[in-house]
User: Fold these one by one.
Assistant:
Number 1:
Amino acid sequence: MWKQRVQRAAILVGAVLAVGAVASTWLWRDRPNLDSIEWPPPVIAGASATDSVTATWLGVTTLLFDDGETQLLVDGFFSRPSFGDIVFDRPVNNDAATINYALDEYRMRRLAAVIPAHSHFDHAMDVGAIANRTSASVLGSESTLQIARGAGVPEDQVTLVEIGKAYEFGRFTVTLLTSRHAAVGWRSSVVYAGEIDAPLAMPQPVSAMREGGSYTIVIAHPQGTTIVQGSAGMPEKSLGDVAADVVMLGVDGLESLGFEYAERYWQSTVTSTGAQSVYPIHFDDLTRPFGTIVAGARFLGDFELTAKWFETLRDRWDKDVELFVPEFGKPIAIYAQPVPDVPEAPESPESPES
Ligand SMILES: [Zn+2]
């Protein structure tokens, strides 16, 4: 009798597990198609660009700024912990091979500073390894500095940020403003909130990389100003007195916060700064190998919907704004006007320039 019961229970458990496996596989595979977003491509530096400040998107919110003299890296995340590492909170390490590849492939030989938006693993886990391989300073929160210290970065190569202070790197001027992290955790909490209060040597579970405070990063240059908002949390104060040309807008989890939130987010970062170009970032699956760009699974955040919202918000508030999806690893001439593709013609009195 009990044998039959055990068998029946085993069959039931097996069936539940099988259905669960099928459902989770389906959930994991259901992803927005990036090709369905029909925005114009960004201007890639080279023959068609007339300007020299470039921003190269290296996945998630890691961005390399370069004006030909000085390079700045917003965030430092080249290692890619697996989905299992994150879910089961297994210790993860810096991926030396990928870090060496990225620094070489994107020619980071003039890197002045690494500036993480906050110290979660997907923004800051490689800052120490990057600083050790370059001459870059690490500029950030106390928690970010603890990640660098854990990797043995010397004290004269780390700088604790002062909010609102202008830091000069070549012709770039960088200012960090206090921001909030998007409250996309359980019951509107911030995932892995808190501080890192001692040097953090790798390997560590991703949960050890606490948020440590979030920033809106303003990168000014004689050619233009870019705001990088790494997390879809609001800047703490209005950015009304910051004029910007470009906004790089973290969208991870934005759709779960609702359209009204997205509208306030847009207004506080785009409308208030008068930016002309908006690039969503942090829409890609951060567990894919470095260089592989796939939208995150829809159940974790629907970038296709976010993109539609951005079109609506642009049409409602800032009609002249251009929306771009950044292309991985390509130097985007962020302040360039595309050279018009006009065939050579003799001078005409009806030239539109006159
Ligand atoms: Zn974060």
Number 2:
Amino acid sequence: MRIGIDLGGTKIEAIALDETGAVLGRRRVPTPRHDYDATLDAIVALVSGLEQEAGQRGSVGVGIPGTVSPATGLVKNANSTWIIGRPLDRDLASRLARPVRLANDANCFALSEAVDGAGAGCRVVFGVIVGTGTGGGIVVDRRVLTGRNAIAGEWGHNPLPWPRPDEWPGPACYCGKTGCVETFLSGPGLARDYQQATGEALEAAEIAARAARGDGPAGEALTRYEGRMARALAIVLDVLDPDVVVLGGGISQIERLYSSVPRLWQEWAFSDRVDTPLRPPVHGDASGVRGAAWLWE
Ligand SMILES: [Zn+2]
């Protein structure tokens, strides 16, 4: 049995999967914010609850909004700041009396879709989460490619390629740079672009809904968005040439992206033709917790 934990900023989700990926149990508790010890306790309680329910012991993988620094063994880049600088995997391992694997939540998403989701049967899967932020993860042969610095796939903070004059230098990003892919492709990025063009503040989902109803300014904002996503992903195609790109996060619900973006990235990728499919996720919101479980093959 494999247990996956998705440690989010507001809730901790847990799932138990059998060998085939069927769900044996599912639990969810609010995240004890700003309390590291209580966060450990909550995860231990979720694991023992699932094990009692299933009547067996499981392996444990945890997805976190950050990553473990290979250099220090401590959590870095997490927006749940109370776990930063902590040896979360070792602390959990000692409390659970077994090794625990940790991975970035975008990597867990990519792994879940690679194992039995939209990337099933593909050797190299690039998973993108476009929601509040923009993150990416690479899976090769059903294993997460973490990288020497644990940043493989993190292309959200590279600059938007082939910028037009009105996209340069681009919006300021929380990472300290300007014009990052994330500042254009995240939900807030789409909303900002729409507001700049129309003066109206709308959420990304509402812009997409209006575009689907034929609204002009919303459709134009999405067209700009698609061009940017195509350019940003063309870089990924050139560097990694994955067998499939899978979108996740709130933006992945915009259906027209799956036909428009692959049509547009043909123009930018360094190839006479590009056959790479862009697919919606199969597991949706459950991908994080499922991918955490699959951290143990
Ligand atoms: Zn940035």
